[in-house]
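Researcher: Next entry in the queue.
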Amino acid sequence: MAQQQINVRDLIFQVSDGAAVPTWTQLGGLQEGGVNWGANEAVEDTTVWADNGNYSEEVMQRGAELSLKGRSLMDPATGVRDPGQAQVIANAAKVAVASKVQARFRYPGEPNWIVWACTVKRGEESGGTNNKVPFDYKFTRCGVPTTTPAP
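Model: Structure for this entry, 151 residues:
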């Protein structure tokens, strides 16, 4: 089959419950998101006089961040949130060593999940009179990413 453009909206994103054998839960209500593969990078300028005015650098630290935005989903009768959103909220409340959680993502057809140990930041949930409650989550990769086969 010929290669095709990839739809951002087809991103499959799941969060772990942190168990030894994790339960992965898909995040609902997504509207926008993506990966910044250069977030938290650090470089050292290695330019010397012998470079004759040509810039040179070495990457000292690699980083990445995934941001997801959407609409908060909740059952109005029970107050129960979308399971994926509830897990993200729980993960974002963790501190110290426990703050490193797992998330994974891929596009349909990709044979492997990209798995991150990451921290989670829960952003602002606000709006005006005629707005729905949004969510804004940021996942900052910690360490080297891994992969695992997709079903």
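Model: The chain has one domain: 8-149.
Researcher: Noted, moving on.
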